[in-house]
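User: Show me sequence and structure for the first protein, then do the same for the second.

Assistant: Starting with the first protein.
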Amino acid sequence: MTNAASPGEISGNVLFYSRPEPLTPELHKSLGVVRRDGPFGFAAVGHAVPLTVGEFQLAAVNGPIIFVGDDKLPIAVMGLNSGENMFVRPEGIFEPGVYVPAYIRRYPFVFANDESAGQMVLCIDRAADFIVEGGDLPFFEANGDPSEYTKNCIEFCNSFEVERQRTQSFTQLLKDLDLFEPKVANFTPINEDGSAGEPTKIADYFGVSEEKLNALSAEKLKELRDNGALQQIYAHLLSLVGWDRLIALALARQPQAANA
């Protein structure tokens, strides 16, 4: 944990964060966050949001949990179109009953890699429009010490980092067991005469193969059960029915968009 690192070359391309800066009293002593009734407007462009393994059961009620890329990063699918989160209202709040991933809740804070210093440093996204001079929740006290708000955010980011590493171990376990397989999400419309239309591909992704999972030995399944991995695997598999929910939401909103 670092809250007073020297500015350096911050590497990485992170969703939502367009201008990360190491948080320092020298640069940000007079800044803070302004309170808003709708603080999640920035997440409206997040149709696919990184997820930690401990969130699987909570996020499964929203929609699909999928894995992407060589690292098999877990993702909460929150929209069918790139740059469109279907659960964020125009006023910057989430629809009632929707689980908000920790990745979104930690914004505008983030740990980033300072290559010149060879360490992780705590940053804020200076592009966040709710970071202002004399904000309701200042980053620093008058003497330059981190405020109570900043301390709480640092603690949250540290917990998130622990969960991120635990998630890496979880996905590595699934890779070691060769449980992943490519999957495709399709949508088949219904024609006016009731016949099935031409299927449309929505997404390519990786998911756990039920066939490979069922082929594991009883001993290995018991091991996955005892370490908690099996519970998260089932949460992922059950979440995939959420493609139908997202499609239904999209279809229901089409007439509204046309009327607007």
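Switching to the second protein now.
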Amino acid sequence: MKVITSRENPFVKQLIALAHSSRERKKARLTVLDGIHLVQAYTDALGAVHALAVAESALNEPEVRALISRHDERHINVLAEPLMAQASSLDSPANVLALVATPDASPTPSNASAVLVLEDVQDPGNVGSMLRSAAAAGVREVVLSNTCAFAWSPKVLRAGQGAHFILNINEGVDLVLWLKTFQGQALALVPKASATATTTTMPSTTALMTLYKCDLQQSTALLIGNEGSGLSPELIDAASIKATIPMPGQIESLNAAACAAIALFEMVRQRGCV
């Protein structure tokens, strides 16, 4: 283990730069895991991390000692408290951080049983929550447009709670073009208000129905749009089904992450996984 006390240490400089810059993370293809539970989730799923940073004051904590024992000591860096505070993005700085290589996604199978597709979802918490719901529902494939929040940002990672490490996440995808290659149905989830509105961009062949009347047992790409404007007309046009979540209350729409969770677990129910 290396004990580091200087802000000028190359590892510390790299860690701080990556922790606070999406551009640096994308350039280096490295991701910062902020907090012991996220690091544990990565280690459980994918093995040892590239480099581990531990707060000096946390060295004797049983949970930290157990994590350290799973790594080569040459890759463990013990940092003074001020350095950990600079590197952590949490309000209460984490006592464990890790650097890992950002996983490379494999192509999404055109015949995938289920795919979560996100268009222009910009809130990191929403993206992370939807990734977590997808993983919980047993959906492995996720496709994001290039206007979504970066999936490997610290805020998305925290909201995902380890979901990233069991998902195949493809980012920066031209969704309309991708749907042309997908062999299953594409279900565009739209707000309640849109379900009764006249939409000139909707082709006559596109069905309009409630989510609970859709057949989700077949291969399905579930399309979720931007928090405010929803799905683009172009993506709705490309979908084979337009569906809405019935809401008998006096609210016109739900949070994007809530909509995704409802749809994903309706899929779970229909497929007899409960």
